[in-house]
Write a structure and sequence with these properties.
mainly alpha; single chain
């Protein structure tokens, strides 16, 4: 995903990557929520439902203790960056001051690198866009992995290490 996203302009890359993160977060939430037998995920996440917005999913994930306060702060910053791109009629990129101010608050990739020391030495985000891409991808991957193993009795030191 990183390769595809890096080839896009900033707006397209942000909207596409955060959309994928939204889907991974939804999958993780579905491991903790009950849907009536005759319904599908649209029962909770479809149009005109309270869990449709990314902000609601982020808050619910934290309330369900699916991640801690640092990841919550990163997700909120990612959502704010996404909103800068999605709702602006003007040209916006990672050189726009509003985007810079918010994107600088995203720490996931740096924190993951500190926990996975080898990774920190190999890959260092070169700029805010790179940090954003890698953080969104890392969080999405973490959520997807956790969702796929949620109903199994499985423990992984790797998953525990990146579960920030």
């Amino acid at each position: 995903m990183i390769h595809i996203v890096q080839e896009e302009n900033d707006r397209a890359a942000v909207l596409a990557s955060v959309s994928l993160l939204d889907g991974a977060l939804k999958a993780l939430l579905l491991t903790k929520l009950k849907i009536p037998n005759n319904e599908n995920e649209n029962y909770l996440f479809g149009p005109n439902t309270p869990l449709r917005p990314l902000s609601a999913k982020i808050k619910l994930g934290y309330a369900l203790n699916l991640y801690g306060p640092l990841t919550l702060a990163d997700l909120e910053a990612i959502r704010e960056v996404r909103n800068c791109f999605a709702h602006s009629m003007l040209r916006v990129d990672f050189k726009t001051q509003e985007v810079i101010n918010v994107a600088k608050r995203i720490t996931y990739f740096v924190r993951a690198g500190e926990k996975l020391d080898e990774l920190a030495r190999i890959i260092v985000p070169a700029n805010l866009r790179n940090n954003f891409d890698m953080s969104v991808t890392g969080l999405g991957l973490m959520f997807a992995i956790k969702a796929s193993y949620a109903n199994r009795e499985f423990s992984s030191p790797f998953i525990d290490a990146i579960a920030l």
